[in-house]
Specification:
The complex is a heterodimer. Chain A is α/β, with parallel strands linked by helices. In chain A, about 65% of the residues lie in helices and about 5% in strands. In chain A, strands 1-2-3-4-5 form a five-stranded mixed sheet. In chain A, helix 3 crosses helix 6. Chain B is α/β, with parallel strands linked by helices. Helix content of chain B is about 50%, strand content about 15%. A five-stranded mixed sheet of chain B has the order 1-2-3-4-5, with helices on both faces. In chain B, helix 1 runs parallel beside helix 2. The chains are: A alpha/beta, B alpha/beta. Chains A and B meet through helix 14 and helix 15 of A and helix 3 of B.
Chain lengths: ~375, ~130
């Protein structure tokens, strides 16, 4: 980086030289006292280059025609001015050494104080009231924190400190995602997961605070950087935490759909399908498929749909039921709907849904009795003498 | 041109569809079957579609048509062995095949046909 800056300086220098302009205005664009610490540092970074720089200028100068050289007689004064400014800057940097630390060593100074940060972080977490010792032991917590901090300190440098999207942070993001997904599964609350990351911010800022005691402005700017960094990490944490939760919910939904549609063989040739919970179109599809496949497999000719577990029947649910019944009929089996509660019967009539070409029974027992009649079966009570 | 064979078994006609049904084939089947019913005076038609895995609205309509035409010619139609996926598709298309009897397999289908024809004969005898 310093080398490139030097090149830039030379190119400006040379072009100015060729046009016979004032050297100074080409290199500097401000009074020494108004320089910000950033430009001081940029100059100090090129300081080692000034030796080479001077030689190159001399070489270029010797190549120029003599007439041109006479025109630039004031040049020597410019050099003097340049070195005065340079000395001032060196003194400035010697007085406030943290300027260099701030720009070049913020990552390194944090890396050096890793143990201190880790200690502060773990202490912060242990102090927190929302600590869940029942879900995670302190040793585990320390281990997890150390892994995360290690990865963080390895990833950051001055350029990417405010940009967590950069490729250097990939491994860190992975670790954070892993941690928050496991936490979501273990049953940590969002607050607990959030305070885990936010307590790192406090630890980092506290550590920086000790380095920047002399300069509140620099402390502020570096604090803002750290806050930004940790906020970005927290965003990643929350995103993956919610993703983890959603995965859990999705898995549970699938499980519920699967276990809530059992097809029972109640008798040879009779299937029963108790439906519990609301019927929506995707669930109807599953119910219908299961029922039809089971009809083919078992060769049953009667299916009983028991809807006593369906909380409410609206026109859509009724539509789904009618579809299921018609599909069963197409397969060559008879379908009976049972378990219609009085309020559901009322709703169906009020909605004007026509269930007249569907066999409906009040209870599963009466549906079974009807099925027995269809199959010409008979249930008989025997007396002891017959046995 | 491909034709689907129509087998005669006593009073019944058997049709087993074992290839993918395309539109022309289905239309030919409809005309052939009607002519066969009138020629043989069959009382029952059994169509086995257990090998049919793809169905569209046209095919559903043809099957429905065969049923209603046979009914007019005084023959009952039973469609047997419909795949679950086919049944769901037909329902989603809004085709309930109202004039057609259905059965799970050929055995049940024949049983159903015999019952229906017996009932018909009983009724005519009573008259």
């Amino acid at each position: 980086m310093a080398f490139k800056k030097g090149h830039l300086f030379i190119s400006i220098f040379v072009s100015r030289l060729r046009r016979g302009k004032d050297l100074l205005s080409g290199i500097f664009w401000g009074h020494p006292y108004s320089f910000t610490s950033a430009s001081v540092v940029s100059l100090t970074s090129t300081a080692s280059f000034h030796g080479t720089f001077k030689v190159v200028i001399l070489v270029i100068k010797s190549l120029l025609p003599p007439a041109f050289r006479i025109e630039n007689r004031g040049e020597i004064n410019n050099y003097l001015y340049f070195y005065l400014v340079y000395i001032y800057r060196v003194l400035y940097v010697l007085k406030y050494p943290y300027i260099i630390i701030m720009k070049f060593e913020i990552a390194k100074s944090l890396q050096k104080k890793k143990k201190q940060i880790l200690e502060a972080w773990v202490q912060n977490q242990l102090k927190d009231e929302s600590l869940r010792e029942d879900l995670m032991s302190n040793d585990e917590l320390r281990k997890e924190s150390e892994e995360l901090l290690d990865s963080l300190l390895q990833s950051i440098n001055n350029k990417n400190i405010s940009d967590t999207d950069s490729a250097e942070f990939d491994s860190l993001n992975e670790i954070i995602s892993g941690i928050s997904i496991t936490r979501a599964r273990q049953g940590f609350s969002p607050k607990e997961t959030g305070s885990y990351i936010f307590s790192l911010r406090e630890a980092l800022i506290e550590t920086l605070h000790k380095d920047f005691k002399g300069d509140p402005i620099e402390l502020l700017s570096s604090t803002i950087q750290i806050v930004k960094l940790v906020d970005n990490l927290a965003v990643v944490t929350f995103e993956t935490f919610i993703k983890g939760r959603e995965e859990v919910i999705l898995r549970q939904t699938n499980e519920i759909t699967e276990i809530s549609t059992p097809v029972i063989r109640v008798w040879d040739g009779i299937l029963a399908l108790p439906i519990i919970g609301t019927l929506d179109s995707s669930r109807t599809q599953v119910v219908m498929e299961n029922l039809l496949v089971e009809i083919v497999e078992s060769g049953s000719s009667i299916a009983i749909l028991d809807i006593s577990g369906v909380p409410a029947v609206d026109s859509l649910v009724a539509q789904h039921l009618i579809k299921t019944v018609s599909a069963t009929r197409l397969m060559g089996a008879e379908c009976i709907i049972s378990g219609i509660r009085p309020e559901i019967a009322q709703t169906v009539v009020h909605l004007g849904i026509d269930l007249s070409n569907i066999v409906t029974k009040a209870t599963l027992a009466s549906a079974l009795r009807y099925a027995f009649t269809l199959l010409k079966l008979e249930v008989k009570k025997t007396t002891k003498s017959e046995l | 041109m491909d034709r689907i064979p129509i087998l005669r078994m006593g009073n019944y006609l058997l049709v087993t569809i074992q290839v993918d049904l395309y539109d022309r084939l289905a239309q030919n089947l409809e005309t052939d079957l009607v002519q066969m019913v009138s020629k043989t005076g069959a009382r029952g038609v059994l169509i086995d579609i257990s090998a049919l895995s793809i169905v569209d609205s046209f095919m559903g309509r043809i099957i429905g048509n065969i049923g209603s035409v046979s009914k007019i010619m005084d023959a009952e139609t039973v469609v047997v062995g419909m795949q679950p996926a086919v049944a769901i598709t037909l329902i989603e298309l809004g085709l309930e095949l109202k004039g057609v009897y259905t059965a799970l397999n050929v055995e049940r289908g024949m049983q159903l046909l015999k019952e229906k024809i017996l009932i018909d004969e009983d009724e005519t005898e009573e008259d």
